[in-house]
Amino acid sequence: MIGTLENEIRARLAPLEAESLELHDDSAAHAGHAGSGGGGHFDVIIVAAAFAGLSKLARHRKVYELLADLIPTRIHALSIKALAPEEF
Fold it and tell me: Which residues are registered as beta bridge partners of 82?
């Protein structure tokens, strides 16, 4: 097991071979809100050639597939901005 949830998310997204990956943990701003179940709130901006030619929905699916078993337990909310390198 990797140390923190943030490190685990980064490791799980590694197969996308991101040119850039920004991950922000916004959990503190949402602590205790109804329905969170203790899971974290994250924003991710990821730039990868794997997203070239894909729709926004297909890009999000790629990210969700890699993180699926963390949602909704360890990750309660995930905001995704997925870009191909030429869009960055």
Answer: 46
Task: Calculate the alpha carbon distances from 66 to 8, 14, 32, 70, 88 in Å.
Answer: 11, 9, 26, 9, 22
For strands 40-47 and 20-25, give the pairing.
antiparallel
pLDDT in tens, 45-87: 999 999 999 999 999 999 999 999 999 889 989 999 999 999 9
How many helices (DSSP H) and strands (DSSP E) are in the chain?
Answer: 2, 3
Domain spanning 13-87: which superfamily? BolA-like (3.30.300.90)
For the residues of 40-77, what is the DSSP string, one character each? EEEEEEEE-GGGTT--HHHHHHHHHHHHGGGTTTTEEE
Report cis status (omega within 30 of 0) of the bond before 72: yes
DSSP state of 11: H
Domain residue spans of the chain: 13-87
Verdict on whether the full-model pTM lies above 0.70: yes
